[in-house]
Design brief:
84 residues; 3 helices
Length: 84
């Protein structure tokens, strides 16, 4: 009965959102791929849109995060540098 649950605990956002957003070091996770991403984007969407996004991601065999990363990468490609 005194044993800890294996479920992850909920972590509250810091009181100072500016410091939280500008944090330079990502938190370490057990997932190695997650460490490669250093920024989090939060957007407000309707529950209906969220449901549609989740259904499409499931139908494509992707996670919502992976699908949205691909979408954003296509819409906002890296700027090409002028080569001398």
């Amino acid at each position: 009965m005194t044993q800890r649950s294996s479920k992850r605990a909920f972590i509250a956002r810091p009181a100072d959102p500016e410091r939280w957003i500008k944090a330079s070091a990502p938190r370490s996770n057990s997932n190695g791929d997650a460490a490669a991403f250093t920024a989090r984007l939060t957007i407000d969407i309707t529950p209906e849109l969220r449901g549609r996004i989740k259904i499409v991601a499931f139908q494509r065999g992707l996670t919502v995060a992976d699908m949205l990363r691909d979408l954003l990468a296509r819409e906002f490609p890296p700027a090409e540098r002028d080569l001398p």
